[in-house]
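Hey team,

Filing this mostly as a record. A colleague (T.K.) asked me to run one chain through the structure pipeline before their review meeting, and I want the input and output archived in the tracker in case anyone asks later how it was produced. No errors, nothing strange. Just documentation.

Input sequence:
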Amino acid sequence: MQRTWHLAEGYAETAWAFVWLCLIYVFVPPAPLVPDFSDATWQAWLTEAFLRRLSFGTSVVFTYGPWGFLAEPRGSLEILPWLRVGRLVLAAGTSVGAGILFARLIERPVLRYVTLTAFLTLANPILILPVLLALAVFDFRLGLPRTLAFFLIPSCALASHVKFTSLWLLAVLAILLLAKEVALDRRFPWQALTLAVCYAAWFLAAGQSLAGLPSYLRAASLISGGYEGAMALAGPASFPVLGLLLVFLVCWMAFANMLRSRSWSYAAGSAWLAFALFAGFKMTFVRNEADHYWLGMGEFLLPVALVISLLPGARLHIVLRAAVATLAAVLTVVPYQCQILRLAARRAWTPLTLLSSDVPLRVAETRAKEEVRRRFPLPNLSNSVDLAPLGHCIGLAYDWNLKVRPVPVSYGTYSSRLASLNEHFFRSPDAPEYLVLALRPIDNHYPTLEDSLAWRTWLAGYQPVRATPDFVILERRPRDLQVRVDEPHEIRAAFGQQMELPKAYARELVWARIRISSPFPLSILGRIWRPEILRLEVRSELGTRTYRFIPGAAESGFLLSPLVDSLDSMASLFPGGDSQAPPADVRSIALHRTEAFPATYSSTYSLSFERMVLTRDGEPVSPPQPGTGDRTSATRVGASDTSRP
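Output structure:
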């Protein structure tokens, strides 16, 4: 029997929820710049891109939207007013939805407030808002006010411009909502229309143009499509099994309620919840490591499982709730040394941390920049600069005139279309005058597979001028060299088969293309879950080494030989580079499978080798051989000018 609904209870819970979110979420300042090559790189650039009003979808192509800085704010304090406004909107929607929902679901006041506080401490508003909206618009027999959806819609629309995961959740929800209003309720789709208007309004508020919206949505689809194949990590297998069991049990509860209610609205809502839970499962376990475990399990799956387990249901739910509670406890405590508990406790401790800090924000920002410059002493670059594959915190710390490629981190160019965006940028008149190049591939990627097509443009359009222990600094040539590619040497190979490079390619730049097909049933598995992880075995003069292979980046071509394994070998690739440490030739390669499941590729693949020659006015311009190089150029590359702005 359902208890009587008291609106005043919803007001009280909403007020507490809003206060708590302000303390742990809204009033948290941007994180400072840090002297490393971690995720802080793209976090700082998202903040800068918003302040510059860069066009997302053309000038910035990433897994976050124009309001992406709301997820992980970092860098300039100029973002603080926008950060406060954006997070206030997200907190307001979350507090209204969660406050009214928990007032309806839990009768005992003390238990209600404790559970609500735990839910808010864990849940990420950006991810949880679409779930709250689904519970408000579909008939889950909760008796929620019909006007609740209109309080949630503006916050949900903003969340969809932060992270593309929220965008896809909201897109599917909007389609179901439109069908419900038109087909089931037989009324004008006010809620769907309001959602569309709010979505456009937040897009405009970020300095974007409605004319650029199609490009933005295409970029969102493009960069989301190949993520699993390039960024997947095969962590402990037991955690995904337990996570999938948790998702199954929660879905079982939702669908049991649906069958009992015999409501089309409940069916549509349950179907969407199943989609959202599976999306959360992929977000947690495709990249099976600690940070994504917290993002997917801690900030999304556990809060959603809590809410669904509290929905009114049959007696069977007592057993299911006990099973879900047991699994949730195991997944909270066991993986990654209590990662979820530790981070949740740190978040709950945020108010005291902010109160105990006696360092003004401006002083902390200045100190952070000084620390970055101390860790990475670099020359004063007065013209436009980009940094690859990462490192934008460093450019911001030096107040350089950053002119960053569309895909701002090189590991994000995991398909031929994404790689071509950066290649076209470096070929255009907008290309930066300087390129500060490091050797920092993630996940043991083969180095030249990151920004694979751009390497060809870098070799032709830039020349090394200085080197430091961490970077090679390239300057744009007055006139680009031409790139000549010989007739390709094509072969068909099987996984595990060693393929020798033609001996005629010794001491030459070798461009390779590798195409791996995926038959229809296997390709579906790869899209639903993820493709299998492949390894590239490379044999060179330095011995045998194994790297992570990215099929999407290799389709359109990448620099296979020489092997770039150090800054010295990277500098030696460029005409005018240091001739005393030439890179090693690659002699043979082999692709290896590493997993029995999922096996998503055919047993053979096509491979082509092409000799790439740099020319000036038709004459070859190759990197100098050992002992024959231009000593002036080599000295310039080896110089260490540590002057600062």
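Quick notes for T.K.: The chain is about 50% helix and 15% strand. The first helix runs from residue 7 to 26.
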